[in-house]
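can u do me a favor
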């Protein structure tokens, strides 16, 4: 996958993408990155990239022309890319969109700063707007990095164990089960004995039950989207019964 970013903070983007799983994908050439700074495409002595909003109000708006020239440079490197703008007004990012992004050959991300981008640029140059959720960040870079991270780790050959991506929480619509490692006994508590039993069928059953139970407790919205098979329903019913015994019936 080839990704270009239009950003006023190329160092933030490049630095971040040197680390961890994504950093390794860049080293191996599985992910190619190109940053274009609108400030490098200004023509005035002050290298101006923003101006005051027509109609008044607080904050500044990103100018069309530096963005247009930066986008032109990005398009000459990635001629077939869809142009995605990071924006609080966008479609909510989720694992389904991460999977879709991971299959694309080329993407251009436009990262806004200040109050936002001149709407004429958005209306004519942007193919899709994507948001991370209903909270306010100070720009589009961290949201773009999050989306690139989520998509890259899904690309074939990026993760060490291909299985890890498939077994992810949300791949089957439920939360992950708890994890434990050595030591089995610790002042903070003991590892659940079933995990030390060596009985792999029982361990898989326990983990599935923990996943379903955690989803029931914390994310009933996810559970409502599922139709559980008989086996899962039985595991969840037992979890709920144990939970009610432990906490008393309300
Ligand atoms: C209501 C006026 N502004 C808030 C002080 C609007 C606004 C401008 C710029 C809100 C956010 C931003 C910068 N953030 C993004 O561009 C952004 C974002 C976000 O803020 N939350 C979640 N996802 C994203 S993607 C891009």
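np, heres the sequence
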């Amino acid at each position: 996958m080839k990704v270009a970013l239009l950003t006023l903070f190329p160092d933030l983007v490049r630095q971040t993408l040197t680390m961890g799983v994504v950093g390794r994908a860049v080293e191996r050439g599985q992910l190619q990155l190109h940053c274009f700074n609108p400030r490098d495409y200004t023509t005035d002595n002050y290298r101006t990239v923003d101006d005051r909003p027509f109609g008044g109000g607080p904050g500044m708006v990103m100018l069309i022309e530096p963005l247009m020239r930066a986008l032109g440079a990005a398009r000459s490197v990635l001629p077939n890319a869809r142009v995605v703008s990071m924006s609080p007004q966008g479609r909510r990012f989720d694992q389904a969109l991460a999977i879709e992004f991971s299959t694309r050959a080329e993407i251009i991300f436009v990262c806004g700063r200040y109050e936002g981008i001149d709407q004429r640029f958005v209306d004519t140059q942007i193919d899709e707007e994507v948001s991370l959720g209903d909270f306010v960040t100070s720009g589009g870079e961290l949201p773009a990095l999050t989306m690139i991270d989520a998509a890259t780790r899904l690309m074939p050959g990026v993760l060490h164990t291909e299985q890890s991506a498939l077994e992810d929480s949300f791949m089957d619509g439920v939360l992950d089960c708890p994890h434990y490692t050595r030591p089995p006994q610790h002042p903070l508590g003991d590892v659940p004995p079933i995990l030390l039993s060596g009985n792999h069928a029982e361990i898989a059953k326990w983990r599935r039950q923990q996943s379903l139970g955690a989803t029931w407790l914390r994310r009933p919205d996810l559970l409502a989207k599922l139709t559980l098979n008989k086996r899962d329903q039985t595991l969840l019913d037992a979890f709920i019964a144990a939970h009610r015994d432990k906490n008393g019936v309300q």
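Residues 86-88, 112, 115-116, 131-133, 135-140, 143 surround 9D3 (CB under 6 Å). hope that helps!!
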